[in-house]
């Protein structure tokens, strides 16, 4: 019997290899990693309670390795093959994001691990967008783009071979995993050579910068990697002194005692010299660095409240500096309960339940009210971290790195069915994942106290 390594081990190796490659390719990303590590260290020193909480819940180990990346592909075939590539690493498509609403002609999903153990080990996610050529108005330009895309193969023969082998065997041996990581990395590498001449690039660029980015290169170069910070406001403040040009505002909810969902910001994309076919030469701007701070996952009810408050604040924040923007957000979000107990009682956020030592000793008891059990110290509830993305924030990240305020151009074209058809599989619903995780943890905690699970 050959010994196979786990999908999670392969993901861990791959995410580290990807980070090393990106540090090599984009030196500013290395600076960003250092800054994030420094601020995380200081935050943990200042707040031992936070350090302890992260430590007891497996969040501390993953902090240093945690990151997401993003890529954009041009065809259904590319997307479907990527799904198989990510499956080798235990990553499945979760969530559907329609970015056409925000003037970006793509729709997206996030490939990520889903079970607790895998998330604790390394929650590496890749935000993956599919270009929607059908949204380009000019038939001539549409055909030209499709023709260019049809000529490229973004996977090496070795990557295809290892993917098929993993599908047949159930996973890969140590040596095959090494080969897989090296071959898969090639798909995401930056190529200084464009596949077209500058005239073609400019024509596509004029329709939308993103179209040029997807169509004119050999493959879906990783366009950013994103480490997780414990204090995004502080990193944003320190970015300029460290030589980075941060985007104007931090996306997502404001700073809170109980962080919710996801806050994100980035340093702006760099203009890079590019070799075009023919004599005329130019540059391309696509690659940047991002940081994120994650909080608790919200229920459908919590998410509806978030969306409503965000909508309200957006009417008042246009054009504001980050400081003023954050002040308005804080004011508007005063309506969003900011204690774990309230988030739980009002059913706004997801929690994971565990029996305490005292609970295990108490054995069978009659009380079933979850809040009473928590008050009695028999079970604990801890916020479940949000592992996904936010379409409005994603649009803000896209826009600050692509330019473009043509927000209306492609609006109103969500098409989840078409996306799933291209992908060759349905996307998993993220809310269902959190709800199942909460439910099974609560069932287990109650069962261990001798209480029948509540339905
Ligand atoms: C993806 C932008 C969205 C995020 O973290 O929400 C994103 C892209 O630019 O390809 O990365
Ligand atoms: Ni991102």
From TrEMBL:
GO terms for molecular function: dioxygenase activity. Pfam families: HGLS (PF07063). Its cofactor is Fe(2+). Keywords: Dioxygenase, Iron, Oxidoreductase. Its EC number is 1.13.11.93. The keyword Ribonucleoprotein does not apply. The keyword Iron applies. CDD domains: VOC_YdcJ_like. It is an enzyme of class 1 (oxidoreductase). Belongs to the 2-oxoadipate dioxygenase/decarboxylase family. This is 2-oxoadipate dioxygenase/decarboxylase. It comes from Chromohalobacter japonicus.
């Amino acid at each position: 019997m050959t010994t196979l390594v786990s999908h999670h081990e392969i993901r861990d190796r791959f995410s580290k290899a990807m980070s090393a490659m990106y540090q090599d390719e984009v030196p500013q990303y290395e600076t960003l990693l250092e800054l994030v590590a420094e601020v995380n260290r200081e935050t943990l020193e200042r707040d031992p309670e936070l350090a302890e909480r992260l430590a007891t819940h497996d969040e501390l180990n993953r902090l240093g390795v945690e990151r997401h990346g993003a890529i954009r592909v041009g065809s259904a075939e590319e997307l479907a093959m990527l799904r198989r590539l990510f499956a080798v690493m235990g990553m499945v498509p979760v969530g559907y994001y329609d970015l056409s609403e925000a003037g970006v002609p793509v729709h997206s999903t996030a490939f990520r691990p889903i079970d607790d153990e895998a998330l604790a080990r390394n929650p590496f996610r890749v935000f993956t967008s599919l270009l929607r050529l059908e949204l380009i108005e000019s038939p001539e330009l549409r055909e030209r783009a499709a023709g260019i895309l049809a000529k490229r193969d973004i996977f090496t023969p070795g990557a295809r071979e290892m993917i098929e082998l993993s599908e047949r065997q159930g996973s890969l041996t140590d040596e095959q995993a090494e080969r897989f990581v090296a071959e898969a990395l090639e798909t995401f590498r930056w190529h200084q050579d464009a596949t077209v001449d500058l005239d073609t690039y400019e024509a596509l660029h004029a329709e939308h910068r993103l179209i040029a980015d997807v169509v004119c290169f050999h493959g879906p170069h990783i366009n950013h990697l994103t480490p997780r910070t414990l204090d995004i406001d502080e990193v944003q403040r320190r970015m300029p002194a460290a030589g980075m040009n941060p985007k104007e505002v931090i996306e997502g909810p404001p700073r809170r005692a109980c962080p919710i969902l996801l806050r994100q910001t980035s340093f702006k994309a760099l203009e890079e010299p590019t070799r075009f076919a023919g004599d005329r030469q130019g540059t391309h701007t696509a690659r940047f660095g991002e940081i994120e701070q994650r909080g608790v996952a919200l229920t459908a009810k919590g998410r509806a409240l978030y969306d409503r408050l965000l909508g309200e604040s957006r009417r008042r924040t246009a054009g504001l500096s980050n400081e003023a923007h954050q002040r308005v957000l804080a004011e508007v979000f005063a309506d969003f309960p900011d204690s774990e107990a309230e988030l739980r009682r009002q059913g706004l956020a997801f929690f994971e339940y565990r029996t305490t030592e005292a609970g295990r000793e108490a054995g069978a008891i009659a009380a079933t009210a979850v809040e009473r059990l928590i008050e009695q110290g028999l079970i604990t509830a801890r916020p479940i971290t949000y592992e996904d993305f936010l379409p409005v924030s994603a649009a803000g990240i896209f826009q600050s790195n692509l330019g473009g305020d043509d927000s209306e151009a492609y609006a109103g074209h969500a098409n989840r069915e078409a996306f799933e058809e291209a992908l060759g599989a349905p996307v998993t619903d993220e809310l269902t994942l959190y709800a199942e995780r909460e439910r099974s943890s609560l069932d287990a905690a109650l069962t261990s106290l001798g209480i029948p699970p509540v339905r």
